[in-house]
Every structure is written in C-alpha cells, then in structure tokens.
Automatic annotation (TrEMBL):
GO biological process terms held by the UniProt record: transmembrane transport
Protein's name in the database: C4-dicarboxylate TRAP transporter substrate-binding protein
Keyword line: Signal
Source organism of this protein record: Nisaea acidiphila
Signal peptide: 1-31
Listed Gene3D superfamilies: Bacterial extracellular solute-binding protein, family 7 (3.40.190.170)
Cited InterPro entries: DctP_fam (IPR018389), TRAP_DctP_sf (IPR038404)
Record has Transmembrane as a keyword: no
The keyword Acetylation appears for this protein: no
Amino acid sequence: MSFRNLRRYAATGLFGAVLAGAGLFAGQASADTYKWITSKPQGANDAQAISTQWFVDEFKRRTGGKHEIQVFWGGSVAKTREIPDALSAGAGDFGDIITPYFQDKFPLNNAVGFFIPQPNSTIEIALMMQKWHRVYPQFDAELAKHNLKAVGFRPLESYGLLCREPVKSLDDLKGKRIRTYGFAYPKIVEAMGATPVSIATSEAYEALQRGILDCTPIGPALARGWKYDEVAKYFVEFPFGASFGHLVAMNRKSYDAMPDDVKAVVEGLGREYAMRYAVDLEIQIAEVLRGWKDSGVTVMEFPVDKAAALVGNPGVQEIRKTWIEKANAAGLPGEEIAAELKF
C-alpha cells in the first residue's frame, strides 16, 4: 500500500485500522521487525542500495537475531518525495530522505546545497554532518519538528559536468544549457555564462539525447546508473565537490521506543555507515571509469582555480549569505560552519 493510499484512508477515519492490519505502524514496541522505506529498487547494484543492505544485515547480526529490519523497496510504501511525511507519520521506522528535494523544509541539514562549488569529498561531507549533529543541537531539532531523527549520512559523490561536447574552459560553457536544481546550481551556472534549465532527473536522459540539455552536473556512478553516459560522452572534472545527498532517518517515536541496547546498535551502525558507504561508492566509481575507457566516454580536466573564481559572483554569494542568515537565526555560528565549505 502506498503512502498516497494511506492518506486517503486517514481522511475516512480508517487510518489506524488499516495501518494496524497492514503491520505498518512504526514504533510497535512488541514487534521485533522494523520497517525501512526507500525508493531504491531491490537488487540495485549501487552504493546506496548495497550500503542499505549492509546496515540491515549488520543490525540483525549485532542484535543477535532478536531484531531485524525489513526493507520495502522501490517506493512500495512511499515515493521519493513522499518519504519524509510518510516516515514522520509512522508508515516506516527507517527511511532514505533525499534532502536536496526538501531544501525549504530542512534548510540547516541542506547546508552543503547552498555552497556549491565546495572543496570537500563524500567522506569529508559525511564526517562534517556527523560533527554538526553532535556539536549543534539545532540540526537535530530541525528534524525533530517533523518527528524524525538522523541515524546516518549519505552524501553524493563529487560532481563534475557530463556534456555532449568537449569543455576545456569557461569560454566553452558560455551559452550552454545546463541542468540545475536547488538554490546554488542555478547561480553558479549563470556565473559560467550558461543557461540554467530545470529538468527532472528522470527526464534528463532524453533532454541530453535531443539536445535540450548540453550538460548536467553529476558524478560518474550516477551518470552510469541513469545511463546518461550513453548520450553524453564528455565528463568534465569541474570541481563542484560532493553534495549532501541522503539522510538515513528514523521515525523519532520508533527510535525513542527502542530498548537502550538496540539504540546503541543503531548509533554504532550510523557512525560506521558513512565510511562503509563511501568505500562502496569509490569502488563503483572506479568501475565506471574503467568502463568508460571502453565505451568512449572522455574524462576531461578543468582548472580548479577558474572554477573557484566563480564563487565570487554576486548571485553565488547571495545564496551563501541566505544560508548563513538562516543558521544565525537558528542560533548557529553560520560563518564558522560555512568556512568549512569554502575554497
């Protein structure tokens, strides 16, 4: 049953009965099986799905088989953009939240999305997020407002530009149509002299194929996963840095209801998760780069100093200032945190 249908039952007053009958109520203390809701398809051979399965397997092993997690793959309970509300409402205990889709809802936890380009790698961003949640209670409080708790962090890989034509300098980008999303990407693309185009991830393949897009920001693993590299054959190592991608989150009531020893297992897995995921991701990226040599994708360098100079653009600076102001308003040292995200 999808989250959409659950909401329909809620409107008729049958929500509790349906959830109880379906076994979907999160936080059932008597249950030994927790539910993980995700839009990832079962059997997907990527770092996100592989590390999810690792977490699930380790949870069962470390609790001595007394507790386990059942994964509801492929958006079977909630689609990508429904997951935060579904998880908050109790349609699952664990779930993946793609935070860049919810920058207005989780602005603090989307800090990295306001600072593109930035110089940090996947694991560096993951460790930053862990530190910020440990040191600054405002990050956790933002999630708590929605009955959510972060238990792991899954940044995206370092992005470059996948293009239909070679790009060696900023002059080559002028007038190009480049896919953007969120707050920072449109401004950095404008600073390049290019045109930002808002197109959904699922529609970008056809847009590249038909020439509606000239380039899209993406990393090698995701480019292969979405098969964009079939229609765009030049990967430009433009130093966007790693974006923050996914929270591995829990329904907060489910977490609070866990016995202390089970909480300790979850917290331990959460600390280890970032490294496990980052290693899986690097393995996958290396495999993609080897495959590109045979499939005709050319990897092109781009001067870091030329890219970093774009950060001084007034539009880019305004987006960064926006996040710092939000952070300061929440009682955070906005400038101090932002310093970690600057070239």
